Amino acid sequence: MSKLKVGDKAPEFNLPDQGGKIHSLKDYAGQWVLLYFYPKDDTPGCTTEACSLRDNLPNFNKIKAKIFGVSTNSVKSHRKFADKFELPFTLLADEDKELVKAYDVYKPKKFMGREFLGTMRESFLIDPSGKIAKVYEGVKPAEHAAEVLADLTNLQK
Q1: Is residue 64 helix, strand or coil?
Q2: Residue 103 lies inside a defined structural domain of this protein
Q3: Domain count for the chain
Q4: Which position among 4, 33, 46, 99 bears the catalytic label?
Q5: Residue-averaged pLDDT of the chain
Q6: pLDDT tens digits for 13-52?
Q7: Structural domain of residue 146, as residue ranges?
Q8: Using CA atoms, how far apart are residues 122 and 5, in angstroms rounded to an integer?
């Protein structure tokens, strides 16, 4: 479970996107922000999640919600991933693992019997005042965009 809870102030960030432009959470004050963490560019689950968010972007735009994908991959890796799948939203490069640690999503994982530290597939919906409105753990890549849109619709009522 994430140490961050609904109502907590969302940790700030200053990270480069796939084009090298620096983004800070404070730059998006007054807007809904989906900060979704994923393990690695151009892998099956991560591609499914990113493409689902891409395909639902018009719905996010209608309600003025900003999407940020975050992984520990490099700016160059993010650029290739975004270009390959025509991702029209921001991918943040957290190469120093500061943000994944601040959001407590850098944890022990197991793959093929090997244990290692890695980024969990978790998301945080941040409200216009900069507080966490919803924490998503155990995200299902194909269903995540629809789940977040439903929550945004309910939270804005």
Answers
A1: coil
A2: yes
A3: 1
A4: 46
A5: 92
A6: 999 999 999 999 999 999 999 999 999 998 888 889 999 9
A7: 30-155
A8: 13
